[in-house]
Structures are given as C-alpha cells and as structure tokens.
Prior knowledge:
The protein is of the alpha/beta class. Helices cover 45% and strands 17% of the residues. The protein has 13 helices and 12 strands. Helix 1 (5-12) packs across helix 2 (16-24) and helix 8 (160-173) runs parallel beside helix 9. It holds the Pfam family Peripla_BP_1.
Amino acid sequence: MNLRIKDVAEAAGVSVTTVSRVLSNNGPVRDTVRQRVLSAIEQLGYRPNAAARRLRSGDTATIGLIVSDVRNPFFTEVSRAVEDAAYQQGLRVILCNTDENPEKEAMYLRLMEEERVTGVIYSPTHDAAQRFKAQHYDFPVVMIDRPGPAGSADAVVLDNRDASARLVEHLVEQGYRRIAGLFGNASTTGRERHEGLMDALRRHGLPAQAEFVDPNPDSAFVHVGVWLAGERETRPDAIVASNGLLLLGAYRAMHAWRARSATSTDDVALAGFDNDAWTDLVSPGVTVIAQPVYEIGKNAMQLLTQRLADPSMSTRTLVLPGELVIRGSTERRVLPVGD
C-alpha cells in the first residue's frame, strides 16, 4: 500500500501540516498531539517519501545501484555510466552486487528502504523481475538489462531477441548448421536471447541444442567441454554464448580442447554477447554483439531523473539495438567432402 502523509493526518485526526512538523521536528506541536501522530505512523507503517523531501530541499541525495555481478564487464561499464551521470547531478551512489542471489537481492532492496534513497537503478533476477510491483517501494526504480512486467517500471534494455537472431543469421550465412547456445539461467535476458536463437533456427529448419547454466565462466567451460568431446558428426559446429562471462568460459574450453586433442576444433565457430576487451585481443578475435553499455547506464540515469521530477508520468522502456562485430572466430566454414 502506497501511504501518503494525508493518510497519517486522517488517522491521527490532525492536519497535514502538523504531521509534517512532527516528521521534520520543526515547529511547535503539543506533546500529546506529537504522540498521536507517532502512534499513527507506527500503526500504518508509514515511511516518509525521502526522495521528494530531498528534491525540494536541494540537499545532496543518494541513489542505489543494484547489479547482478560486478565482475561482469557489462555491469562494470554500466556502473561507471551511472556514477558519472549521478556525480554531474550532485548525487551519491550506493553500489550493491547480488551475484544473482535472491536473498542478497532482497537484503539490498531492504537496505535501499532503510537508507531512504532517492531512487534505485536495478538489474533484477528473473523471479524478482516477474513479480516486481512499484507500489511496494517508497522510491522510483529504473530497471536495466532485465525489465519487469509491462508498465511496472521504467527500463533500459537491449533488443535481445533481435541480437541473438542476428548472430544465428550470421553463422548460417557462414555455413554453420549445428548451432548450440549457452544461456544464463538467472535472468530474463538469457531467456529472451534463447528465444531469439530458437526462432532463427526454426526459420532455417535447423536443429537446436541449448543449455541454461549458471552465468559464469566455469559453467560454460564444463558444458562446452562436454559438447566438444562428442562425435564429430553430432557435436555443434558453432556455439553462441549469451553473456561475456559465458563467452569467456566457452573460449577457454575450446582453447583447452585444441591443446590436448588430436582432433581439431578449428571448424567450430564461437560467437556471443559483450564486446569485452579480450575478445579482440585473442587469435582469432571473437564475433560478438556489442551492447551500447555506457548508453544503457546513461539513459537509466536520465529516466530516473525525469521520474523524480514528474512521478505521475507514464512508464517507459527504452529498447536499444546491439552491433554485430564480426571477427575471425566465425569465418566461413569450409565443408569437408561428403558433408
């Protein structure tokens, strides 16, 4: 329930001005009246809207930034963009890292309430995104990378389905036909990228092989190693990883397999998401979807600022395109005789 100061005033049988004086401890209020107001606040569970109060006073405010994995370069760059924009506006930033852990996520959301933050920029876990309701919080929320239910909160996201489908289209054009995908199991992002891959494969009448895994390099290393150990006729000839950490683990698995196996994996392509620095430094370079990461953070901060200025405005979702960066890891496949 989204309580207002007017609700406290009605419950205590006093004016809104009196409640405001009690909350700010500014102005004369009789002790009996003060106690009545405090009792009403406790019974209703009312929390003052610190965001509006700080905005009116012009004091330096604080925003929360809750990310899924600060080790992921995607979130590192997003955090930098948010911090840069917040600093320009005189805002402080509390950075929290959930590790895709729902318990840590809930703890940090409670921390945001306790700190009376002005607003929160937030990349939720899949389950939290699905059940998100803005009225549960006293601060405005802007979601990044993973949106909540339609109309529930402002959001800045990548066009995940389109980006994933474009990777498949590129691989098909290069001659690859057994395309497998690794997708993070804790976010809506992984599911949307999975849907894009599956849609594109169906359009071409190609078989699908996909796994949802923990979104870290170790998980990818294990799963790709299993794929590569299969018979040549059945193993994937191309692998798509749905985030930079999975892509790194997949690359390591392919590198390790080449080093210890007499069977070459040169005919196995690799592509994925996130234009991390290493993807252009290894040989061959890795084909990726480059996300407009800094723009995601910058736009999220702009949406939050606009929401603070006008809380009644309709919610908005900004969907940004990714850029396909083609490198040597997906060179045209030379089919052996008989294939």
